Amino acid sequence: MNQREPISLKKIHVTGVVQGVGFRPFVYQLAHEHSLAGWVCNTSAGVDIEVEGRSPALIQFLADLKAQAPPLAHVESITATDSPPDGYRQFEIRSSVTQEGEYQLISPDIATCQDCLRELLDPQDRRYRYPFTNCTNCGPRFTIIEDIPYDRPKTTMRDFTMCPDCQAEYDNPLDRRFHAQPNACPICGPHLSLLGEDGTAVGVEDVISAAVQLLTEGRILAIKGLGGFHLACDATNEEAVRRLRQRKRRPAKPMAVMMATMEKITTHCLVSREEEELLSSLQCPILLLPWKDDSTVCRLVAPGNRYLGVMLPYTPLHHVLLREMGRPLIMTSGNVSEEPIAIKNDEALTRLRGIADYFLVHNREIYARYDDSVWMVVEGRSQPLRRSRGYAPFPIRLSFKAQQILACGTELKNTFCATKDEYAFLSQHIGDMGNMETLEHFQASIELYKRLFRLEPEIVAYDMHPDYLATKYALGYGESVQLVPVQHHHAHIVSCMVDNGADGEVIGVALDGTGYGTDGAIWGGEFLVADYRSFRRVGHLQYVPLPGGEAAIHKPYRMAIGHLYSLLGEEGLSAALPFLGEMDELEVHIIKQQIDQEINAPLTSSCGRLFDAVSALLGFHGRATYEAQAVIRLEMIAADQDDGTSYPFSIVELDGIRAVQLADIWQGILDDLLGQVPAPAIALRLHNTMAQISLDMCRVAASETGLDRVALSGGCFQNRLLFTKTVATLREDGFEVLTHSRVPCNDGGVSLGQAIIANSTMQTVD
What is the number of other CB atoms lying within 10 angstroms of the CB of residue 401? Predict the structure, then answer.
């Protein structure tokens, strides 16, 4: 270095996820490496740095600041200005500074890192088997933060005073636990307790060993984790799994399984390279994997399903439990039915009593509820089905500056979305808004986001459905904000556009179960031309009655009768009834009356309801106990060998909107059944037909507009078979196809679309 080079000073401001991720010790070490003096500190707006030295060193420091940032850091921007030297003699880390109205990005909770795992499994280490081991590279973040800047007094770890050894790590800039806010050890940190069903402590010498023994015996445990409780049992014990289902009132919905290592997972499931990378990632989501026939995980875990939801341990407690258990464990959300996951010990003892035999609890409070994230990999491309732990509250970066907007989402798989500056903060999974507990979770989470990100919504967007609780919440804002109703499927398509960074117009294919239409009907098989501001409906699946309204969703045979009777008449229905199982003649008569007299039989164009109806005809009799159960069965039974056969259909135009006529499809299905064509072949042909319908409707839209980009969204595209066939069919015809990769295609992504549409709409109004 040229010693005659003058001393310069740079004032640097860094934004992004740069707190609680080891960024300040990284800056400290980088400054020492380049012989620079000055300081670094956290602020409510990010990280501020003043660094003083010779020009070449400063230039290299700035280059390394982003290029060599810690693994959990996500640097959004670095701004640097020159200033007169201040005569700094050393580099130091200063105390955090609170700035009124400023905000920063916050790290999600992160799975246990390899360094902490080595300590956890080392009998010579002071943190051996300690279930709360963490460092700046892993552990709880979002679930323990009450406010920013991210310092221990503003987290739920404030109740634990560090011992001298932990304090020394915390204070040492060269230690990986420097300013790790949850830092703790067995001497000074949180601890586990084992409680009986009545909440009394069980006197055991080793809590984890006792829990392992209980699980081995077939008991059900409620286990407190990062963002709430899991209900756990031995996944290879059919009797224990059956008992858990009965107690949780979850007769058929698949449950997630946790396995100790990747090697264990490969003994039960087929795992691709992309799937292994996602399973082992910092986020550690549940991943839907092809289930091996010789797996010892009992089939009752995911009845009738080809895929098993699997995750690796992501907390130290999980690592120790799974390794000492030696078997896969069910780790399903600690709740009843569709209630939110329990987070407090007393709450779990109340809500999960009668389900869990024992409670494995700890005394570190959870501030934010946080369900596990769920993903799938289809043809090498990862897609989220539930975006929560490990991902939220990290924002979706926008290509424009948005207004302060709160979008309230939908009734099912609810998330909300808040926009500010270039960020869209899509919330963690909230759940189905069918009870007061979930509404309270929704409201509390909104208040947390408003506080953390200094949000004061000027605009509130909501779904057009008047009965949604999220809609009623939005309307409660009254005249204090601009209220913007957004059509459900328009929001679906825009969420896919934002997911892909696309603007302008696209052809939108929105296939899902339920969405309130602008004409008052229940939409769900929609073909649109849309942009961020508006949409035009090009076409839809033919309207059919939904006999009994919500009842038809829970009883797919009602949907089958609705299709058959309205499209093929009495003759068609009579021919089909033997395939619907034992039917109550009175109920069939009532359903026909509802259709004839148009009583409680709203019209729907839903693709999900079409698939429900066909599933009922192919053997799914009785009541669906969870959303899309009949549709999932249809996908699972579809034949693997494809001869390309599909059913005929026609498209008619009325007042400029096309309707895909379904009668020929149903006649084809009925002819196949009467001709004893196997159900798997019929199921496959229906998927082929829906892909062809999408292609033909996109061709119509393209001929009218010249567009060649198609955005696919809606819950039906969680169906891998429908997704792959539709994508392949469109691409083979020359269309550019946009699909989801960061936000769910289901209703969990709708709030993002709502926010962007509201932003564009209000800018247009202004």
Answer: 11
pLDDT at 457 over 50: yes
Q: How many CA atoms lie within 13 A of 693 on its CB side?
A: 33
Residue 485 tokens read as: 């109703």
Give CA–CA dist 180/522, Å, rounded: 50
Calpha distance 421→397 (Å, rounded): 9
Contacts of 710 (CB under 8 A, 6+ apart): 506, 507, 508, 509, 698, 730, 735, 736, 737, 738
Say how far apart CA 555 and CA 93 lie, in whole Å: 63
In a domain, 383, yes or no: no
| Residue 661 and residue 695 share a domain | yes
Mean model confidence pLDDT for the chain: 95
Exposure class string for 267-295: b at 16+ Cβ within 10 A, else e: ebbebeeebbebbebbbbbbbbbebeeeb
Q: Of all helices (H) and strands (E), which one includes residue 427? A: none
- Whether the CA torsion 342, 345, 350, 353 is positive or negative: it is positive
Q: Can you give the pTM of this predicted structure?
A: 0.94
CA 349 to CA 184: how far, in whole Å? 26
Report H helices in 675-749.
679-705, 720-732
- Check whether residue 569 and residue 692 sit in a common domain: yes
* Burial of residue 199 (number of CB atoms within 10 Å: 0-12, 13-18, 19+): middle
CATH of the domain at 360: 3.90.870.40
Q: Tens of pLDDT along 163-177?
A: 999 999 999 988 999
Structural domain range at position 613? 540-738
Determine, yes or no, domain membership for 702: yes
- The answer to whether the beta carbons of residues 186 and 130 sit under 8 Å apart is yes
Helices within 412-477 (DSSP H only): 436-452, 469-475
462 & 438 share domain: yes
Separation of alpha carbons 507 and 699, rounded Å: 10
| CA angle centred on 728, ends 723 and 731, rounded to 5° | 125
DSSP assignment string, 538-602? EEEEPPEE-TTTHHHHH-HHHHHHHHHHHHHHHHHHHHHGGGG-S--HHHHHHHHHHHHHTSS--
Same domain, 550 and 429: no
Q: Which of 69-83, 514-528, 553-567 has the lowest mean pLDDT?
A: 69-83
CATH assignment of the domain containing 69: 3.30.70.100
Distance CA 511, CA 691 (A): 11
Q: Which residues pair with 698 in a beta bridge?
A: none
Last residue of a domain, one of 69, 93, 117: 93
Do 352 and 487 have their domain in common? Answer: no
Q: What stretch of H or E contains 29?
A: helix 23-33
Q: Are residues 303 and 426 in the same domain?
A: no
Domain count of the fold of the chain: 4
Where do the DSSP E strands lie in 327-367?
Answer: 329-333, 358-362
Rg (Cα) of the chain, in Å, rounded? 28
The per-residue pLDDT for range 301-312, each reduced to its tens digit, is: 999 999 999 999
Using DSSP's 3-state secondary structure scheme, residue 94 falls into: coil
The residue out of 375, 407, 424 marking a domain boundary is 375
With tokens 């060269």, the residue in question is 174
Co-location of 220 and 360 in the same domain: yes
Q: Does the pLDDT of residue 720 top 90, yes or no?
A: yes
Q: Answer yes or no: is 180 within a domain.
A: no
Nearest residue to 645 via CA among 680, 614, 615, 696: 680
Alpha-carbon dihedral angle through residues 518, 519, 523, 528, given to the nearest 10 degrees: -60
716 in the same domain as 756: no
**1 falls in which pLDDT band (50, 70, 90)?**
very low
Report how far Cα 327 is from the mean position of its chain's Cα atoms: 27
